[in-house]
Amino acid sequence: MTSQPHQMRADASVAVVIPAYNEEARIGRTLATVPASVRTIYAVNDASTDSTAAAIRRAAETDSRIVLVDLPINSGVGGAIVAGYLRVIESSEDIAVVMAGDGQMDPGDLDDLLAPVKAGLCDYAKGNRFLSDKSSIKDIPRHRLLGNLGLSALTKIASGYWHVSDSQCGYTAINRRALLAVDWSECYPRYGCPNDYLVRLNIANMKVMDVPVRAVYGDDWRSHMRPGKVVFPMLRLLSKLFVTRMFRKYVVLNGHPIALVYTFSCLGFVISMLLFLYVAVRTISTGIIPQTATILWGMGSIVSIQLLLQAFEMDHRDNEWLCAHRRD
Q1: Which pLDDT tens digit goes with each residue over 230-261?
Q2: DSSP strands (E only) in the chain
């Protein structure tokens, strides 16, 4: 079991990582709003095809904190964040905060995001727009809100952080201990990176806390995400992350029976599905319901559901100590 995070000194250094792709119109304004308390700003140009890099250089002329990280090839938002994290690790800053290059994250929430990390309550604080005032949630486009709720539910199962919601919010703060605990070279490079980070932090036994933040969507804001192209890749990613966490945490590192309970539950569902197909085909072809197979199907389904719920409960209990909560 990993030790608890410690309270940081009052002058803990903070770096902000800002991934940017084709944000020439917004990046300058975003950089200008970063609070003066931040020591370094790593503006990561993810091989933009517009003048994003030039805009960052212009901003750096008047703000010495800004460091341009110019990626030669497009790496995706996750790859850009990792590039910034690696610079933070190199430069020995204490905390790394991620803010979007399009100004979607309110700088006024930065102190609230940093507070639990500095106080040693958690290793990783993430924004949660659902905990903010209702007007903030109303600002989130409907399709993104529904998608986020679904992904948040699946991310709870995949990551083991059952208390975490708004999993797609990228406004985060991470301490140096957590930065050094994760192999960032293995992380998913594109949309879905926040979910990937949570799984890897859970395997490393890092404490995570949700912090209320405001959603910022200007009149000229538009999403580059296409839901039809995201749904199935995200389902594949979350399935892979879940299996990865089960194997690494509960087989390799721990030897916990949770992995067995999940496995038997899945096998039970497969057998129940085969029995259901047999019952359906037999009934249609002969007009007679095979009673024994029907009973086995019903019993198998009930047992599989019970095992699944038991696995959820065991996983929740085993990870409860990693759930950091705010002190109001």
Answers
A1: 788 899 999 999 999 999 999 998 889 999 99
A2: 14-20, 40-45, 66-70, 95-98, 124-128, 172-175, 208-212
